[in-house]
Write a structure and sequence with these properties.
The chain is mainly alpha-helical. It folds into 3 domains: 199 residues, MFS general substrate transporter like domains (Growth Hormone, Chain: A, Up-down Bundle), CATH 1.20.1250.20; 204 residues, Up-down Bundle (Growth Hormone, Chain: A), CATH 1.20.1250; 61 residues, no CATH class. The chain has a two-stranded antiparallel sheet. Helix 4 runs antiparallel to helix 5. The protein starts with a helix and ends in a 5-residue tail after the last helix.
Length: 522
Amino acid sequence: MKKQKSSVVLTALIVALGGFLMGFDASVISGVIKFIEPEFNLSKIELGWAVASLSLAATAGMIFAGPLSDRFGRTIVLKASALLYAFSAFLAALAPSFIVLVMARMLAGLGVGASLILAPMYIAEISPSDKRGKLVSFNQLNIVVGISVAFFTNYLIVHLSKSNASWVESLRLKEYIWRWMLGIEFLPATIYFFLLLFIPQSPRWLVMKGRYDEALNIMKKFDDDNAEKVISEIKDNVSKESAPKQKTPVKDLFLPAMKLVLTIGIVIAVLQQITGINSVFFYAPMIFEQSGIGTDAAFIQAILVGLTNVVFTIVAMVLIDRLGRKPLLIIGISFITISMFLLAYGFNSAKYELTDASSSKLPSEINKVQLAPVMNKIYKSDTEFKNVVKKAMGEEVEKKYESEFISASITMNPTLILIGILGFVAAFAVSLGPVMWVLFSELFPNAIRGTAISFVGFINSAISFLVQLVFPWELATLGSSGTFLLYGLFALIGLGFIWKLLPETKGRSLEELEAILVKKKS
């Protein structure tokens, strides 16, 4: 029995490495953008596209992963996703142009979409019922660990690039910083592929294909005591699913009786992304550099973002069934609002002035004579300061040395920015992050649940893509203070909506919730 328990845990851990790669791939770009913007001379929207293209492709990956896994098997598609991760890392590291880099990111996005759907699906299909929740949570935990590791490896590569060691010079780390950041994923992706060669096919998929003996033998490895009962139940479920049944048309989502529940679903799907979580995860070093702490410190603080996310994701797993969904959302979104207003205040209080003393700290490659129109003048916003520097030095120089110009000129309290960002990540990790998907599984009536979750999930992905795409443009146009103030206002509006209209779902049956939500009409 103990051997079977360790077998299912080990298998779940291996498959959940897909979540690790997903988290890594999503956040590694946060360290890359500083270097590709000047190298490829990108506009702010192009820079956003380099980040957001992964999410766009991931949406397509999620759409096709399920049907492909039903046809070819869960493990086959998981192996394909591992190969996509590996090949995309290799291609991105060697990308000769912005277009090739985006293509590599989109290939990785297909792997992300497949992993997001199939890793938890496979784990659920092999797990004993009493261990299923814990084992499936391995995947979510691995995602946040992957995010943290990406922040750490980004910092490590930046730090090592400054070494004069011969092996650093032979690897040309200083010249190819961002290429090493992206290429390093090739190693864990390759390991993941080879580990998947030892993972058996899903018993449920084998039953779907009529291969009952194989399914039983595999299930015995994971749960010998209940294997025959489980396979029998799967047979019954597969028979019911394969029986002709009426599909739920999408138009049923918009019936008057669905107005309240659909509104709640859409608002929460939008709120999870429009409060800026992926701006932080995908642009963390850029945000910290705006506080003037410099590149190295910005990458170190990004590591703290990842660690905070891991710790408070675990806290959420402990609290979600104890406190309930609505209290967690109210507490979490309240702190999200406070954190965003703190960030807006911190950046709004900043002053920018280049003096003879501070400009001496700028890199020697910068022509100080060209800075004469900027010197000894106080600027009250980051956008105003960046624009005058751009006018004096040219756009290419301003892009390349933006962090150095800000560090040399800014007067503010960077601790406020660190507290605001970490507070936001912690609040999100215990509320909107995990609670949204739990609510989606509980709010919608049985007959339309699958269609409804797909619909609001698509909206969530679309907003995520847009937030990532426009964030660099927002910083350049609205400034850091204006951008975070906007996120805070969205959070405040969402908090009022949830307080007034969201019912508590904890401890209520799906039928009871359906009676409360669906029968209400305007």
